[in-house]
Design brief:
Radius of gyration: 19 Å
Bound molecules: iron/sulfur cluster
Number of domains: 2
Strand order of the largest sheet: 4-6-5
Shape: globular
Number of strands: 11
Distance between the termini: 45 Å
Number of helices: 10
Length: about 260
Amino acid sequence: MEETGGQAGRNPIEPVKMTLESKFRFSCNKGLECFKSCCGKITVFLTPYDVLRIKTRLGISSAEFLALYTRIVDLKKTKLPFFLLNMTEDGKCPFIGEEGCSIYADRPLVCRYYPIGLGVLKGSEVEGGDFYFPIKEPFCKGFDEEREWTVHQWREAQEIDRYDFINKDWFDIVLNKKLRAADVDPDEKSQRLYMLGSFDVDSFRSFVFESRFLELYDVDDATIGMIREDDVEMLRFAHKWLKGVLFGEYTYPRKVA
Ligand code: SF4
Ligand code: SF4
């Protein structure tokens, strides 16, 4: 999580490059005086799988979740919009409760990584990221605890590999080198399709099965069977399809010109 409040004016990002084998000491638990103090005034970017997990947990549609809990932000670097989790009026995460995170098992990827940051080297298309760095907020007592981790162990404990696997094609899209070319600028229609396929799996399913989509694209029967019921498969399908829309990299070619 990235601190955006006025905490002591100190940059919490330590200038240290970590690898998967780097070690750090950390433990977060209810007994610490700082408990819950990090879940406010923060910037939480949402990945597509974050939206899927949270909307499923809340028992609402992806469109409802996005409307109720998020806002859109445009990042010039990627030329594609993202969703950020809205904080409440008093600056808290809407999911923080008396006992801590009320959606803990389905918390966003950014919250899973904390207190480790993920760095992606310019020009690379992600395979689990390139390097890591510690984020040491001055108020966070977790670093004073005894429990030692390697970054690899931390990722494993936080279920990060699964998130990376499901988000992989989406990360390939938002980090695609072609988006940095001056002459590549996704038009309004491509951006709309990107938002739909990236974050709104319920509406994307309607788009696939209730429009002429399957008449236009060559999708095999096994894939159609998987995406009909399974949200994760539908999300991964959508991201592969978006690579065709945005970059002409078609996994499912058009049947007609
Ligand atoms: S130890 Fe750090 S991460 Fe855990 S509650 Fe305290 S401030 Fe937050
Ligand atoms: S989603 Fe959970 S872990 Fe993440 S900021 Fe909100 S309360 Fe904290």
